[in-house]
Amino acid sequence: MIRTILTVLYVFLFLTLGLPVMGVEWIIGKFNRHAGDIASLRTVQWGFKCCLFISGVKLDIRGLENLPTEPDKPALLVGNHNSFFDVIIMYTLFPERTGFIAKKAFKKVPSLNLWMMRLYCLFLDRKDTKQGLKIILKAIDYVKEGISIFVFPEGTRSKDGKMIPFKAGAFKISTKTGCPIIPVVLSGTADIFENHLPKIKKGNVVITIGEPIDPNSLEKEEKKHIADYTHTIMEDMLVENDKLLENKLNNQKALEAK
Predict the structure, then answer these.
(1) What is residue 132's predicted lDDT score, i.e. its pLDDT?
(2) What strands, in cross-sheet order, belong to the sheet with 203-209?
(3) Against a cut of 0.85, is the pTM above it?
(4) Beta strand 122-124 pairing with 98-103
(5) Dist. CA 62–CA 121, nearest whole Å
(6) Long-range CB contacts (< 8 A, 24+ apart) of 129-138?
(7) pLDDT for res 67
(8) Those residues with Cβ within 8 angstroms of residue 254's Cβ, 6 or more apart along the chain or in another chain
(9) CA nearest neighbour of 121 among 148, 94, 102, 144
(10) d(Cα 41, Cα 22) in Å, to the nearest integer?
(11) Are 203 and 56 in contact (CB under 8 A)?
(12) How far apart are alpha carbons 57 and 84 in whole angstroms?
């Protein structure tokens, strides 16, 4: 429970004491937008890395070279969703500006909402179809400006680790802009928090970032059903990812038994 208390306390202090830093980065952005945006991203990345350290999370990352590294070559990143920690983990990895489509509820959290907006996050009301369309159109505008977008197309967290069918709307961000889709799978994140609420427990997480999918190179039917096409690819990736995590845990237990 001590780990949980320390993590919560740290997050509170970061969100509170980080506000003056955000102000400085906002001023930098007035003179150089990209520099200000990257400064905010690096600040949040540092904060999230500290949070993962306190939480005892160890990462095994594969495919980092597939993430966008240039400001004029954004992508739609698509991930499976098992835990609140999915976002914290992923944000520590982004080389370039990346916004995240989040639940509307996060917009009501003081300080956190300001940081999220600084990072080009968008707040989605899943019950409002019209508002959802506006969010997708805004995300398309961001991509045209060189900002990548990260989404969880399942729409909610999986309860058993298996992927829920994807909602197709978010994939318009790729088909309307021509930006690549980068599939991302995470294994082990639910074991940090969701599987034993309200405690945070240390654990291992395996992440695989797949090769980009070019929407313009797909066959007509594949592009028409691009959500299902991506889901199939990610299901195969997740099977391998889960095996990697299982092997890692078994090796760890074997070492501890010696």
Answers:
(1) 87
(2) 57-62, 203-209, 181-187, 76-79, 148-151, 98-103, 122-124
(3) yes
(4) parallel
(5) 25
(6) 132/169, 133/169, 135/101, 136/169, 136/170, 136/172, 136/173
(7) 97
(8) none
(9) 102
(10) 10
(11) yes
(12) 13
pLDDT at res. 158: 87
Chain centroid offset of residue 87 CA: 4
The tokens of 170 are what?
A: 């978010």
Please, is 164 exposed, middle or buried when counting C-beta atoms within 10 Å of its C-beta (0-12, 13-18, 19+)? middle
User: Backbone phi, then psi, for 245, in 5-degree steps?
Assistant: -65, -45
What is the token pair recorded at 218?
């797909």
Q: What is the CA radius of gyration of the chain?
A: 18
Query: Consecutive 10-residue runs of the chain (258 residues): their mean pLDDT?
Result: 88 88 90 94 95 95 95 95 94 96 89 93 88 94 97 89 91 96 96 89 95 94 95 96 91 76
Close Cβ partners of 92 (under 8 Å, ≥ 6 residues apart): 45, 48, 49, 52
pLDDT for residue 250: 86
Cα 168 to the center of its chain, rounded Å: 18
Q: What does the block give as tokens for 41?
A: 């991203």
CA 121 to mean position of chain CA atoms: 11
**DSSP states along 161-230:** SSPPPPPSGGGHHHHTT-PPEEEEEEESGGGTTGGGTT----EEEEEEEPPPB-GGGS-HHHHHTHHHHH
pLDDT on residue 134:
93
Phi, psi angle pair for 83, to nearest 5°: -155, 160
Strands (E) in 30-180, as ranges, are: 57-62, 76-79, 98-103, 122-124, 148-151
